[in-house]
Amino acid sequence: EFTDELNLQKHRGAKLKKDTLSGLSRLWTWSRKRKYVSDDVFADMRNEIHKSTKGKPKARYPFSNNDVIETLDGMHNLSKHQTMLPVLTLLGLFTGIREAELTGLRIQHILDGHVLDIIAGKNVEAVRQIPTHRALHPLIDTLVESSTDGWLIPDIPNRKTTREAYASAKFSDYKQKLWGHNTRKELTFHSFRHRIEDLFRDAEIYIPTGHKLTGRKDSGSEKDYGKGGTITKMQMALDKLQQGQDVDEAVARLMDKLLQD
Q1: Rounded CA separation 171/69 (Å)
Q2: How large is the C-alpha radius of gyration of the chain?
Q3: What pTM does this model have?
């Protein structure tokens, strides 16, 4: 009855309700050890607190076409020593994979057919081999041939911070210089991940195939059967993606500059 009463209190959040029960449980445990009371009536009650199903939808902030075009066109003025940013951005745009996975790629992780061999990640599903969009193939070839330190993405110095942290900070700095401080602050590198998921939906790509490409967890039990999607099937899915003509033209402009430099 006590937890039912708490669940009915709309002015208190789930965390506060659970903290209340945890505090009461600790008090009851203290009292029970001193034989003031018998059983702990509050034990495990915090699990009975319900999260509100009302309210706002989960925040999702994918890059729009205009966001992408402005981001890519703004990179034409970067110096040759800042190649990391356009390379990271183009890879993120066409793969939607995490920054840590991209910045962790070495030349040895680029397999025949421009397949990425991701050997570590956020979860079990992140460890995978995935093909890349054909628009990236000339860039990947150039990066492999020009690498001087064994890494695929260039110009990330050896520092105490991780490669991912360095790249994330530089992308954030670039975004602020491009649009101004606190402007479009909801857009992060992770927004490319949201965008690619929308492109998968638009292309009606089989959901487990999309999850395999981005290293997401499947919601069903199909992941427990078979060996997963083949490289060929995943490549076919990627070839269906349509970024849009204006975005394709912005990609081509930036790609030409990178390949010529």
Answers
A1: 15
A2: 24
A3: 0.74
* Burial of 68: CB neighbours in 10 Å, binned 0-12, 13-18, 19+: buried
Amino acid at 241: L
Note whether 139 and 154 are within 8 A (CB).
no
Q: Give the integer Cα–Cα distance in Å for 223 and 220.
A: 7
Which amino acid, one-letter code, is at 163? Answer: R
At 2-12, the pLDDT tens digits run 555 655 565 56
Measured between alpha carbons, how far is 80 from 260 in angstroms, rounded to an integer? Answer: 11
What are the backbone dihedrals phi and psi of residue 190, each rounded to the nearest 5 degrees, phi first? -65, -20
Residues 91, 192: Cα–Cα separation, whole Å:
10
Distances (CA, A) of 210 to 29, 193, 218, 237: 49, 11, 10, 8
- Name the token pair of 171: 């992308």
How do residues 18-69 score in pLDDT, each as one tens digit?
A: 777 677 777 777 777 777 776 655 565 556 555 554 555 566 789 999 999 9
Alpha helix (H) residue ranges in 147-230? 163-179, 191-202, 207-214
Instruction: Work out the burial of residue 71: count CB atoms within 10 Å of its CB; fewer than 13 is exposed, 13-18 middle, 19 or more buried.
Output: buried
Cβ atoms of residues 212 and 228 within 8 Å: yes
CA angle (65 as vertex; 60, 66 as ends), nearest 5? 105
Angstrom distance (rounded) from CA 119 to CA 202:
29
